Amino acid sequence: MELGEQLADIGCEQCGGTHKSAYGFVYRAGDAYGVYFATLHTGHVEPSVGLTLSIGKWWNDDAVDERAWVFLQVWMQENEYRMRLLDPNLSHPRNHKALGNPLSRDAAPQGALRNDFFEGADFIVENDPVVTSYLDTGVVDIARWQEKRDRQAG
């Protein structure tokens, strides 16, 4: 995993508040295999994350048609991370063409990449420090994120 270079504040289309957004890259066998955007819904009562995850040939800039993406909601319930597929039109970065082909709630569970999407989402939730801290405690731990970014850079 490689964390993105910054955390951003983004507006919420539903509540009008501001949320934190993180992004990063997931690798497989040394190659970039996935890109994710995590929207931490810090303005809402219950902590949840909107996770946009694109999987495919990210090592090839011209392979946009060989990538697919899903949008998941992730939350903590009874000491477990829970996930459900949502309509990709609800995803904040839904207009980023580089993500590839959006998969609907109905199409994603049927596809060949189904296991890759859920394994990738599990990996992100367990390894991105701001996602983990927010889901576990309701607080975005920016210091832990910066520490991991510094280790990656150095």
Global geometry: globular
What do the pLDDT scores average to?
90
Please provide the count of β strands: 8
Pairing-aware structural class of the strands and helices? alpha+beta
SS element count, helices: 3
Report on this model:
The protein is an alpha+beta fold and 154 residues long. It has one domain. It is built from three helices and eight strands; from the N terminus they run ββββββββααα. The protein has helices at 114-127, 129-137, 142-153, and strands at 2-3, 8-11, 18-28, 31-40, 48-56, 67-77, 80-86, 101-102. Strands 1, 2, 3, 4, 5, 6, 7 and 8 form an eight-stranded mixed β-sheet that branches. Helix 1 (114-127) crosses helix 2. The longest helix has 14 residues, at 114-127.
